Amino acid sequence: MKSNFSRREALKRIGLGSAAVTVGAIGVVNASSKEGIDTQYIEEEEKQPLNFDQPITAIVLGAGGRGNVYAGYALENPKELNIIGVAEPIKYRRDNFSKSHNISENNQFTTWEHVFERPKFADAVIITTPDALHYGPAMKAIEMGYDVLLEKAIAQSWDECYDILKQQRKYGKIVGICHVLRYAPYFVKMKEIIDSGKIGEVVSVQHFEPVEHIHMSHSFVRGNWGNSKKSTPMILSKSCHDTDIIRWLVGKPCKKVSSFGSLKLFKPENAPKGSTKRCTDGCTVERECPFSAIKVYAERKSFLHHLKLENHDTDSTMELLKTSPYGRCVYHCDNDVVDHQVVNMQFEDDITASFSMEGLTSYGGRRTRIMGTMGDIVGDMDSMTVFDFRTREQKHWTAKDINDGIYAGHGHGGGDMRLARDFVRAVKLQDPTQLTSTIEASMESHLIGFQAEKSRLKGGKVLDVNLKV
Q: Single GO molecular-function term (predicted)?
């Protein structure tokens, strides 16, 4: 499905064509400068409300962390988006979500299947269910005529991903994938610099994702994404963001991939003497263990959003840890995903890229280096520096220079809300070009991930990517 009018014309139709602007990768970008620093701001479009005659309507499947993030766009922009339905099996989450969005009782559902027992009653469906529950609701929603915003990973297997793409093509609906880094001003700026030719032709990319050790233990050992059979491999569940942003920055097809990695630390043979199956079972080394569930959840009160707990007081948390997966010893879980992995990629025109996912770090935040024929880029999401070989000039931006708009404080460097905004526009205008992360655009980075995992399991064998969709 392709619109007959341009992105600029589309924006004019919803009341954003009057400012002096240039069209950028996330929409309209007002060029500006501050004290000699070459910088771009996204303020103009964000200050102007969209001239919708009425908001689009959406149903959220899964009222956990990500569901609340994207639905939060409706709370800040009620003239653009109205959440009118929710499916969530955990009652207090469903109740709280329904209260926040004023959802009528007849539009509150326990599971996603219940939503589709009703005739279509909204414009779009936002799917933020666990990874294993992406395929079913996505296929059904598209069939019933809904536009879809689908959390990554698209599905648990390449065949399922391809099925969803074929379903989208069959019914002609908009399907956006939540590759939010494409919408983060930091990466938008990086992409803009690359495409401008300021560093010449891209030669190679080095990209590094430090997961942070407690985040690793919470999400990928004890948590929802620790077991690849219940979720997806680490390269998909966590790092398809990274394979996707590398593919988007390079802008050319990936040809070959190889990968190495393993589960090094979080396994039974590494359990210290005196440890127990649960941190609450009298473990004699709990006080000195960096991954103690008592320290993480009850004392520091970190990462509580995934615990099925309405009240986060210490007593309630401690009681839950006695039975919850999050109370388990990190060395005695059912986890099988890697805690470190490297991926090598060869792109068209002999461009090479390397990616490293490291679960055992004291810090988070992605680091990226782009090497070109006439310059390079070095960035860590807090700042970015570009060096020009020809002039010997160096330009530096901080994150605030790049992202000074109204979404500066939101998740993924502002990418979460900008994705939601662009999806709303895409649905309203029935124009998928409003999104940079349609399912078609996101397929190759998923194939890179699936092939990388296959390579890892085959001892690092070089595999072809060869996207044919």
A: nucleotide binding
